[in-house]
């Protein structure tokens, strides 16, 4: 996989959440740029109510929000909000709620690995318009005086490479639970209260795929031991436990709505 900085490449294919026009990183185009310190660096994620998650993150993310599977590929997603375009854990100032796990997908921004279709390789790209970047150099340069990637840039590239490795590992995990037919359709629901205190009609918040106890119970003891030994069973239970987080999301959403109404 090619992850060094490049100069002449074909346009990067595909659309990626949070990235509008990724540019292949190069010393010629970005040699004078740097990054600046921001008190709230996560403003870009304020509209990301669902974000891709890798299987290695399940044990940490499960403490903060639901982990679901969605789409034809059954991609794991961290659910950060109930309403599309609303991340409940990012303030208007771009600060994540203290104690809430920040997915690696968000932490790698504004760097990303992208597929160069013409060359059939992965290249390092940046979202040039990101608030973190400073065209005049900022606090930390992207390249040193010799034109080599700075320590900051090198670490960012390494993070992207590690993320790509975990993304592929996650694909293997998803294929495993799909092959075992462990996923089923589920709904997250909420029953609001009328002004007189009586229950209002139940509202469906989301429909998604999840591993169910019923399907897990149908596995043979030998298969369960296999899943235990390869670490998949622990991640499955991380996911299942995380679904209790829907109640927290509803509570946070209700609190924010009340604050807005009072304001």
Give structural attributes.
alpha+beta, 263 residues, 11 strands, 8 helices, disordered N terminus, three-stranded antiparallel β-sheet
Short structural summary:
The protein has helices at residues 27-30, 58-61, 104-107, 151-179, 213-217, 221-229, 232-242, 245-262; strands spanning 23-24, 34-35, 50-52, 67-70, 75-79, 111-116, 121-126, 133-134, 140-141, 183-190, 203-211. The chain is an alpha+beta fold and 263 residues long.
Mean pLDDT: 90
In whole angstroms, the N-to-C terminal distance is 52 Å
Task: Give a quick account of the main beta sheet: strands, pairing sense, barrel closure.
Answer: 3 strands, antiparallel
Q: Oligomeric state of the chains?
A: single chain
Helical content band: 25-40%
Strand content: 15-25%
Order of helices and strands: EHEEHEEHEEEEHEEHHHH
Query: How many H/I helical runs?
Result: 8
Shape: flat
Output the strand order for the largest sheet: 1-7-6
Which structural class best describes the helix and strand composition?
A: alpha+beta
- Rg from C-alpha positions? 21 Å
How many strand segments? 11
